[in-house]
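Hi V.,

You were right to ask for the full record rather than a summary. Here it is.
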Amino acid sequence: IAGGGIFARIFEAEGIAYESAESAPGRGNIWARLKGGSEPTLVLLNHTDVVPADEEFWESDPLSGEIKDGYIYGRGALDMKGTGIAQLQAFLALHRSGKPLNRDVIWMGTADEEAGGFFGAGWLVENKPELFEDVGLLLNEGGGGSLNQDGEAVFAVEMTQKVPFWIRLKATGKSGHGSVPHAESAVTRLVEALHRIYSNPFTPRITEPVDTYFKALAPHVEEEWQEAFSDMATAIKDPAFVHKLQEWNNGYHALTRNTISITMLEGSSKINVVPPDAFAELDCRILPDQDPEEFLNQLRFIIDDPNIALETIMVFTPAVSSPDTPLYRAIDKVIGKHFPEAPIVPNVGRGFTDSHFFRDLGIACYGFSPTLIPAEDRSGVHGNNERISVENIHRSVRLTLEIVQQVVY
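Predicted structure:
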């Protein structure tokens, strides 16, 4: 959105002042502010970038936004263009109403979240700190409604998240011709190290926010899981249960321990060359109370090879937002009005969002979109045939506005 793109044209048509900035070529950020009273500013945050999509595996063009059978198909439909548009509609409705606001409201579309946010939200925090001097509340992605197998609704509000800790391994060894194998090489060292990592998962343990989350979910999961969810700290002492939980729902399982996904490998660029070095990258997600340096030392102990170097690519700081704010109370009130039977539970995010940049500033951040997404559609996030129902878009627009109105009037 260099120069603001479609959002700039909308703001210009509405007569709303806006600013935009490119943090790097093709990395555009745009924001607009509605002026109000002296209460701490509310930010409606969304990221405008998406992950790649391979058209070969989609039923329609991933960038088309095709509407078919009551669904909008396209990369970003769930993550998170649908939410960004709902926030934009709420922002425009406040402007059009002409009613005085008790606080400023900022709509902000940022770049680069899918790559870490350093050219988006992180760049704005570092280079435009004046934007956030009076900000007290922020609404972002990370939570929302889901439907269980019985069609019952459960709403989760993201209050904290596991910490991404991306690590690069570099193995070194003798190089040479592929026809004359060495007793060991950089590649074999790396493979052995990765096997040790894969074979030694971190011990499960339940943190307080995760325990609160599971207990809140307990009455709403299938009967066979209810007892375990009510006391997950005891349940995870049984390795067979932990394995069963991962097979049933790997998202719940990921909340019970530090995790590592081996995602990238690099060796020789030619089949008949034994390379002098080989690399692997690990997507580690650590629990919010985990000390990163201690985790790194544990990983070194598991690898147990001085010829493999560990490099930190990215790590964030953990933070938890309190529910004692006008924004959380507004979410609770609006959802309680429209879905009186549905529980609203505090959630621990398995992945990361841009909220951590702002929690580090002391801003109360909540991941929430008032949608109801069936389980079968959630696989579309970063997957094939990402879609959201038109009904969910309409609901999200209506209820996002109601939530915001509760905070600003």
